[in-house]
């Protein structure tokens, strides 16, 4: 079994370091997703029978992608250290699938940003009209720091959810860039391993 030499050895260790960083970033994405899902302010806003779940769809995609990225990063580390074409090819395929899922989540969040905010505003407007003393309305006002109760026209809700959606977007863009680098490294190393075995 041939081992990579010279510059490819450097690529091997770079891929290992990349995958370790990738694993850490997957942990970070998972942590951000869990924070957005269980953040007391966000949960207090989106609790209720008829509460819109559009915001949490993007968050669940983020949690799933973060978990998968952690797993794939671990397998990428193993593939780089063992110089396994199979593991490196699987790593590349998984990165490509995750990349597609993150692009889909980003497009979903961007295209539905206004709908998410509108759904939340409509939900709280309906809740307020049905029950003026609702604890849900009190927590909503506390979270978005509204000075007056004027559902559907305040910019506080838009600012609150824009800040949360931008967090999702920025994290996704950062991870996507790192994934592209990982796909390039894995294919370069995979080809080098194949070539070194053909020489022997």
TrEMBL record:
Keywords: Membrane, Transmembrane, Transmembrane helix. It is found in: Membrane. One of its GO terms (cellular component) is plasma membrane. It is a multi-pass membrane protein. InterPro entries: Tetraspanin/Peripherin, Tetraspanin_animals, Tetraspanin_CS. Pfam families: Tetraspanin. The chain crosses the membrane at residues 12-35, 55-75, 87-111, 167-193. The keyword rRNA-binding does not apply. The keyword Transmembrane applies. Its main location: membrane. PROSITE patterns: TM4_1. Belongs to the tetraspanin (TM4SF) family. This is Tetraspanin 2b. It comes from Scophthalmus maximus (Turbot).
């Amino acid at each position: 079994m041939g081992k990579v030499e010279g510059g490819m050895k450097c690529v091997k260790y770079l891929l290992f370091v990349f995958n370790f960083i990738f694993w850490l970033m997957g942990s970070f994405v998972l942590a951000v997703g869990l924070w957005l899902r269980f953040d007391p302010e966000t949960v207090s806003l989106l609790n209720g029978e008829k509460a819109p779940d559009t915001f949490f769809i993007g968050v669940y995609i983020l949690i799933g992608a973060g978990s998968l990225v952690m797993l794939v990063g671990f397998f990428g580390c193993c593939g780089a250290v063992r110089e396994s074409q199979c593991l490196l090819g699987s790593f590349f395929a998984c990165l490509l699938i995750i990349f597609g899922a993150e692009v889909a989540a980003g497009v979903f969040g961007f295209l539905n940003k206004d709908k998410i905010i509108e759904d939340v505003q409509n939900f709280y407007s309906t809740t307020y009209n049905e029950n003026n003393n609702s604890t849900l309305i009190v927590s909503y006002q506390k979270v978005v720091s509204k000075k007056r109760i004027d559902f559907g026209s305040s910019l506080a809700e838009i600012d609150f959810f824009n800040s949360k959606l931008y967090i999702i977007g920025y994290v996704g863009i950062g991870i996507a860039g790192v994934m592209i680098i990982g796909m390039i490294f894995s294919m370069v190393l995979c080809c080098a391993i194949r070539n070194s075995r053909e020489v022997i």
